[in-house]
């Protein structure tokens, strides 16, 4: 399984509301197109990730079966 790291993202703070909306709409369209092309593959990948939980997480947190720490 490939582990993807999320890099911090800093958005510009100088966009006008119209610019922010345009970017938002573009991301929405991109998401739709990715789903059209890869939806089945994405679903399969998600199933595989659920079936093969991250074993590293279990090693770092040996009390994962216990009650939450809050």
Q: Pairing-aware structural class of the strands and helices?
A: mainly alpha
- Report strand %: under 5%
Number of discrete helical segments: 2
Number of strands: 0
Mean pLDDT: 83
Which series of helices and strands comes N to C?
HH
Radius of gyration: 18 Å
Oligomeric composition of the shown chains:
single chain
The parts where pLDDT drops under 50 for at least 5 residues are none
Instruction: Name the helicity range.
Output: 55-70%
Summarize the helices and strands and which ones pair or pack.
Layout: H1 17-51, H2 55-60
What is the structure about, briefly put?
With 70 residues, the protein is mainly alpha-helical. The protein has a domain at 17-49. It has 2 helices and no strands.
Walk me through this protein's architecture:
This protein is mainly alpha-helical. It has a domain at 17-49. Helix content is 59%, strand content 0%. The protein is built from two helices and no strands. The chain has helices at 17-51, 55-60. The chain is flat, with a radius of gyration of 18 Å.
């Amino acid at each position: 399984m490939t582990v993807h790291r999320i890099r911090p993202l800093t958005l510009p703070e100088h966009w006008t509301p119209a610019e922010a909306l345009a970017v938002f709409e573009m991301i929405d369209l991109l998401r739709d197109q990715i789903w059209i092309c890869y939806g089945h593959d994405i679903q399969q990948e998600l199933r595989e990730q659920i079936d093969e939980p991250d074993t590293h997480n279990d090693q770092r947190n040996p009390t994962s079966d216990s009650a939450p720490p809050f």
